[in-house]
Amino acid sequence: MTTKDLKIALFPQEIHWGDKAFNIDTLIGVMNKLHPETDLLILPETFSTGFITTSDKEQVRNLAERNTGKTIDTIKALAKSYGVAIAGSFIADSGGLLCNRAFFIEPNGEETFADKRHLFTMAGEDKIFSRGDRRLSVRFRGWNISMIVCYDIRFPIWCRNRRNEYDLLIAVANWPKARVSAWELLLQARAVENLSYVAGVNCKGTDSGGFEYGGESMAVDFKGKNIGVEDSSTGIIYSLLEYKKLQAFREKFPAWRDADV
Q1: pLDDT at 44
Q2: Which of 130, 191, 223, 257 is deepest in the core (most CB within 10 A)?
Q3: Mapping DSSP to helix (H, G, I), strand (E, B) and coil, where does residue 236 land?
């Protein structure tokens, strides 16, 4: 069976920190504006709450949900209704442990989860959350897709694409304006070194600590080129990922064969 091209949409959502109802309503509102041929919609890190930087663990716990809570139930209902896969992350309660949990929800109800591996110690994330031990991986419409969360992208060993195990790497983030040049460079670097498409989605807004986020998001091809096109009316960034072109380049320039284990 021939693998078809993948049509993805990146939503650099403006997050209201700690206001779960508002953020979920924002997502519901944008779904009607999404191009009907979209295969995959990607949201920012902790799209429903924002990246909560606080030493008050109970405050974070009050925002956390299980995988069967309102946040994921809403995502599943939207994925089914609009026939689109939806990826992002949310604050999860896992048997009393708090996690920054990546999710990939398919239109048929299939769900895949994995917790953020590298916790942002400079903001005390490691004091609140438990870190994950595996990278999210899923096969969707013939594409092998892997997913990481924000700070994870700074660690190339964690992102390593051994023997082309993934075709698309998703990175979801709350990445502040002050360091956005690094974010954009890292997205391109991960694409070039791993001979893969990379889709990075950042949020907009101002968090509780006063840090600003500009929504800088990119779809990058295997040569490091930004191939996203923004719809000015919605702010959604669309990109067509071409499977044959990816595989042809991997055959023409098979650097993956020489990669270190």
Answers
A1: 98
A2: 191
A3: coil
Report which of 5, 4, 47, 3 is spatially closest to residue 241, judged by C-alpha positions.
5
Q: What is the pTM of this model?
A: 0.97
Catalytic status, residue 150: yes
pLDDT recorded at residue 1? 66
Q: What is the mean pLDDT of each run of 10 residues along the chain (261 residues)?
A: 93 96 97 97 97 81 94 98 98 94 98 98 92 97 98 97 97 97 98 98 93 97 98 97 98 94 80
Catalytic residue, from 20, 116, 125, 216: name it: 116
Active-site residue among 45, 65, 106, 216?
Answer: 45
Question: Closest Cα to residue 44, out of 151, 181, 173, 206?
Answer: 173
CATH code of the region 6-255: 3.60.110.10
* pLDDT value of residue 190: 98
Domain boundaries, the chain: 6-255
Pull the structure tokens for residue 57: 């663990």
- 45 given a catalytic annotation: yes
Q: In what order do the strands lie in the sheet with 237-241?
A: 111-115, 97-105, 85-94, 40-42, 6-10, 237-241, 229-230
**Quick check: is 193 catalytic?**
no
CB 126 within 8 A of CB 151: no
Tell me, what amino acid is at 249?
Answer: F
